[in-house]
């Protein structure tokens, strides 16, 4: 669908590099957002999330809703990196593996939260270099 949109818009087809640079800049900026850290904290602590939200009534329904809510927090902390993973992964499986490892480390390792800022700076720099190269 994205390729079709680009092909139908001559300006965007001539400046397709903007999609990559924009995705990198968006993902880099998101690494510093409050929403990222809030979602990351909720995603990293599923037991505290369950104890905070479990109501004890209608166990199956409650379990389903808890899973959905917790899943939204986990997607919320990594959606920008997942978008980047899609963008670069279409052309290179190694980049998909690297980004997957970064997301796993960020979410699972005790020091993982400290990765967010350096990753954000690297993505902003990469997107900025692409932008300056073409502008």
Question: Explain this structure to me?
Answer:
The chain is mostly helical and 135 residues long. The protein has one domain. The chain is built from 8 helices and no strands. It has helices at 2-8, 10-14, 17-30, 34-44, 46-53, 59-89, 93-108, 116-134. Helix 6 packs across helix 7 (93-108). It is elongated, with a radius of gyration of 18 Å. 15% of the residues are buried.
Q: What gross morphology would you assign?
A: elongated
Separation of the first and last Cα atoms: 26 Å
Number of helices: 8
Order of helices and strands: HHHHHHHH
Strand content bin = under 5%
Would you tell me the overall average pLDDT?
88
Helix-strand makeup class: mainly alpha
Described by strand count, sense and barrel closure, the largest sheet is:
none
Short description:
The protein is an all-alpha fold and 135 residues long. The chain is built from eight helices and no strands.
SSE inventory with pairings:
Blueprint: H1 2-8, H2 10-14, H3 17-30, H4 34-44, H5 46-53, H6 59-89, H7 93-108, H8 116-134
Helix pairs in contact: 3-6, 3-8, 4-6, 6-7
């Amino acid at each position: 669908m994205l390729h079709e949109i680009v092909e139908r818009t001559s300006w965007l087809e001539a400046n397709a590099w903007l999609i990559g640079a924009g995705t990198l800049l968006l993902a880099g900026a998101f690494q510093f957002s409050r929403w990222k850290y809030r979602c990351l904290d909720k995603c990293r602590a599923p037991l505290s999330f369950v104890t905070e939200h479990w109501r004890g009534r209608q166990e199956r329904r409650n379990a389903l809703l808890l899973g959905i809510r917790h899943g939204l927090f986990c997607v919320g902390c990594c959606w920008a990196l997942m978008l980047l993973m899609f963008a670069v992964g279409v052309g290179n499986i190694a980049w998909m593996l690297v980004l997957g490892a970064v997301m796993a480390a960020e979410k699972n390792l005790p020091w993982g939260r400290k990765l967010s800022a350096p990753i954000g700076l690297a993505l902003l720099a990469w997107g900025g270099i692409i932008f300056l190269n073409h502008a």
